[in-house]
Amino acid sequence: MFEVAELGHTIEKSVYKEKSAQLRAALLTIQAQLKKYPFPVIIIISGVDGGGKGEVINRLNAWLDVHYMRTIALGEPTDEERERPKFWRFWRTLPSKGTIGIYVGSWYSDPIAQRVQQKIDAHALQTELIQINQLEQLLTDDGALIIKCWLHLKKEAQLKRLKELAKNPASKWRVTDKDRQHLGMYDAFINVAEQILTETSKAYAPWLIVEGSDIRYSSLTVGQHVLERLQQHMQQYDAAHAAHNGNDSPLESQIEQYNLLDALDLSLNLDKSSYKKELEKYQGKLNELTRHALAAKRSSILVFEGWDAAGKGGAIRRLTEAMDARHYQVIPSAAPTDEERAHHYLWRFWRHIPRAGQITIYDRSWYGRVLVERVEGFAKAGEWQRAYSEIVNFEEAMLNHGIVILKFWLHIDRDEQMRRFKSREQIAYKQFKITEEDYRNREKWDNYQKAVNEMIARTSTCKSPWLLVEANDKNYARIKIIKAYCERLEKMLDEIH
């Protein structure tokens, strides 16, 4: 069972007043320092009903500078949230680097409630915990500090606390029918909570269990824990930063991959007449299928990657010409903004996950971490090396929610790329597409090709494979892409009927 230090410990009001003033000053000082550090702080306050979660959060809000923190209160998912993968609403609310986010209701709330109410079985709970551990490791690998505090009460103490709150006219509003219902499920709740705390208390994100019968004691304990974890995390960051001295030696992959791209037949083509017939056929089919997918509330994510001038934009336009503009969005991914750089690299892509039946098309995507960021040195070696598994888990979350994912790599050879560069320079409305950087990137063609091959090998899964598109001939490439999407939608719709 729970091991809670100093069970039943209480603190006198005068002592609390003195210690809380000291703690507040220390927290404000370290919070001011935090603004200079490139990591966010995520504080999760959870526990037994009546254990003082709300009071502790209120104290933290009073002690900290509200300009650099926010409290995220999440209850039952909204319709908009239910139409997306379950972690979507948490990703949208994650604090930026240098700030603090306190969660009232976290990714633990639903699995606990679902299991206690026997809406999910032990296997489903285990799957949930694996996904939670993956999420927390992903965030902490990126530098985030996760502080998790569980406020515990024995059953007798919980009953006493609820009676006291109900008796007082000023606080009786805090006791709801749901609280009384939960009291009757106390034993089941504790059994589930114990399993969850045991299996999710990791070195990178441990749980602190605090006895919650005395609010002054629990507030000081949690506040002191937050202070100490912040101090420790900053010291570790400073030590690591000093050791690297701002340099990250390149770490090339030791995996030797078969060159998948060289195996493509780039001579494949489609004459103009055949192209027009095929385009009309498949655009008509796509229009019908996307309307059926909308009615079935099944959304799609299309990812377009490829060489500069490979024809991604043209292929996307041929898709969207066949779709209702109210039900798709195209997200062009350029260099991240300041706001995006202040979050995990996946944050900006999570924000655009489509609602049920909608379509999101990414013109370049999260694969930039293992392509341009890897080759150009924008990501440290450790960052892009661990990104393969992070991306697979990210896409698995989409697939588990029923989202259709298609990933296209548009491949052209170097001669065709140069021909298209020169052609763009001669056309007024295409000149903006060509820059000196495009020519400079050609010098790293071999490095990019190596990165592409490893990306394909390490992120192709049975449910989310890469489709390699021979794109020297734009007509052929466009039809292959539209046809592939139609076939995937047909398969999905057949599976649900």
From TrEMBL:
The keyword NADP does not apply. It comes from Methylomonas rapida. Residues 11-235, 270-492 form the Polyphosphate kinase-2-related domain. Residues 272-299 form a coiled coil. This is Polyphosphate:AMP phosphotransferase. It holds the Pfam family PPK2. InterPro entries: P-loop_NTPase, PolyP_AMP_Tfrase, PPK2-related. It comes from the Bacteria. Keywords: Coiled coil.
